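Sample intake — DoxX family protein
Collected from: Amycolatopsis samaneae
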Amino acid sequence: MPANSQRSQRPAKLLAGLLATGGILHFIAPKPYDSMIPKQLPGGARAWTYGSGVAEIAVATAVAVPRTRRLGGLAAALLFAAVFPGNVKMAVDAQRRGTPLPLRLVAFLRLPLQIPLVTWALKVRDRA
């Protein structure tokens, strides 16, 4: 594969790796993800944690495979948007509980991070 082609696939491969890692972490350490699940959702938090982990791994696979990358990039953007309420819940909970400042900052800094993640996913889609 030419060096230019490898470089052009790097953003997609990195995005797939990020998504796969996040998805796997839902199974290795589910408790932090459980606490992000809004109580208004039906069913148990653990089921949503595992389901979202499966979704992240599936989207990672779609992004990793060149043939499905365009759809995978769109799915990644939608996934990042879909988890935003969970990130808001995490930040609000951290504020309410008086979580130590460094952890509270991390919770709040995750919110604007969604914008570059969505943008990244859409660029991967557009370049597929």
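Post-analysis note: Residues 3-127 form one domain.
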